[in-house]
Amino acid sequence: MLVRRNFGSSHHFWLEPAPQGSYMPGYKQRHAIEVARGIDTAHQQVSSPLADALLSLWTCGQLSAIGVQTLANAAVCEGISNESVVLLAAIGTFGQHPQNCHRDLISVVGKECKLPQGVPVVVPALDHKENPPYCEVTCTVMPPHLLLHKLAVNYTDEFKTVMGLADLDTWWSRVRPDDPRLLNNPVNDVDRKTVIPLWCHGDGVEFSTDSLLAISIGGVLSACSSIDSSMFCVAWPKSAEAKTKAGYPRSTWDTLWAVIDWSLKACWEGLHPLRDWNGREFDDGSEMQALAGSSLTPQQHRFLVWQLLGDMEYYCNTLGMPHWNCDNFCWQCNCSKIDPSRWAFDFADEPGWEMHDEETLLHFAPSANVLISSIPGGPAAVRPMVDCLHSVEFGLTALLVGGVLHMWCYPEGGLVGADHAAPRAFDVWEQLKQAYSELGTRERFNNLHLNQFCTQSSPWSTIPEMGGHAAELRHMVPAIALVASRRPASPENEHARDALDALARFYLILEHGDVFLTDTEAAEALFCMRSCLRDYLWLRLHYSETMRFPLRPKLHWCVHLAWWCRFGNPRTWWTYSSESWLGKLATLAHSCSHGTRACRISASVVAKWRLLLHLRLSRQMHID
């Protein structure tokens, strides 16, 4: 048998006898040939930064399997003989059969992966390439309890880091006894030192020409990066989702929620379930049957979903919480949009609306979704956490900054002076750059133009709202507050200055505060938020005949966010890291979508993600 060997390029090769007993030209045969020649390979390390980088790019969806093979083969031709690189170069029979590169790479990396492969679940779906589109397909789900079990058993040290176990005792000791999440919570009846708090995040993300709804979990105490701490559970494309309200007999997510509910209940019990999500016994000889009834971790930990994370669209449209268009949209208080006695936009220290008391919280059922009503935890109304990113940055901050800039660039009203708006925006930008420099701000806008906060061609036709990334908006507040303090005195500028200054102080408290704010810090945060909103309300009433400074439910939620500061720093549950993780998941999903129907993409996503997590945990790969 002859072995084909690349020499210099893929178009030049030479043949030589393969070692006796070999059956195909792979990296082991190449290694045997080098040994027979007397080449010393003992000094060569198996691990390779190049191989790790190639695998990281592939599992993140930024490089194809063929690309991995091509680059690894080029490195080998350049003289790199590291075994890990040669192994990657050998996939697809050294590139001779590129259609097999993906399969071979899955096989090579998967051999050392000790994470679960996921559980196949038959779900109703839509396949638009069939007529009729309604069908049943298999979705691959990563049950949280099984994933956490494998992490605890096979990646022990990494599990402790990802879950933040070093701070577990201290964290529980600092949770206030009057925290509403402890009401009727089963964690009160067990030793909290064995209970690991989790978050559960859900949101949609665009990929290719579709949208993917993804559910993930993670440790509340984790200090790891988003890609390391976010544990993917399930995702399903919007285009393939069957809905009962659309006339189909069954819903895709009804089945998937049942699996998540079944698994999260097992997480709380700390034991592997005895039956599957349908109440059926496990197949004889299966891994699930062998694990049934045993502890999830060697230390007999329990896992409690402490907080749900997401934006208002996810809470309302997916979890079924009261919609923001409702008159009584808030599920944490009795406010109303139309009743003046409990007006939702009353930002006084003693508003007309009242927070739900304990009795109301215990009996209030705002949604029938399993994450809200079924899994073990506190009252349903306090499970979804108000997110700083979506409620403050993309709510109050965007509206306040956009309104103030519109006020400065179009001071006359109407179309009067519209020709001078662009020069005024340029002047404001020069002042902002100076303020950025004085404050040492790192996260900055690169420019300022009218279309960032209004429509330049018709500046009074839309609500002024500052666009940009959330971090840019947040860090812009202190700078524009400094600019406002130097503007000519007027009632409008004074209220704008005071609102921006109060919001800047609120952000400062969150930035420098600990995981749990002191009572003084929490009270100051609530005072700053209410002060900001009162000045914002004055501006709204002053410009009531324009579209500046509109009143939106997000402003009301900002009060609740500040009120929750007494139980923890909102910085610890804002969704910046989750949004970052979703962006990476979208890239990964896109790499799996070529030639794959939307209703069958889940298996590919799970297969690649488990390898991504394995490589990052086992090789300490931190190439994002």
Question: What kind of sheet is the major sheet?
Answer: 4 strands, mixed
Main sheet strand line-up:
7-6-5-8
Count of DSSP H/I helices: 23
Q: β content, as a range?
A: 5-15%
Whole-angstrom Rg: 28 Å
Summarize the structure.
By secondary structure, this protein is of the alpha+beta class. Helix content is about 45%, strand content about 10%.
Tell me what the structure shows.
The protein is of the alpha+beta class. The chain has three domains: 109 residues, no CATH class; 244 residues, no CATH class; 185 residues, no CATH class. 44% of the residues lie in helices and 11% in strands. The protein is built from 23 helices and eight strands. A four-stranded mixed beta sheet has the order 7-6-5-8, sandwiched between helices. The chain has a two-stranded antiparallel ribbon with strand order 1-2. The protein has a two-stranded antiparallel ribbon with strand order 3-4. Helix 16 packs across helix 18 and helix 20 packs antiparallel against helix 21. The N terminus is likely disordered.
Topology (SSEs and partners):
Elements: E1 2-7, E2 9-17, H1 27-37, H2 49-59, H3 65-77, H4 83-89, H5 91-95, H6 101-110, E3 119-126, E4 134-141, H7 144-154, H8 156-163, H9 168-174, E5 195-207, E6 210-219, H10 226-229, E7 231-237, H11 252-269, H12 287-291, E8 302-309, H13 312-318, H14 358-363, H15 370-373, H16 388-409, H17 421-439, H18 470-485, H19 491-512, H20 519-542, H21 553-563, H22 576-592, H23 601-619
Parallel strand pairs: 5-8
Antiparallel strand pairs: 1-2, 3-4, 5-6, 6-7
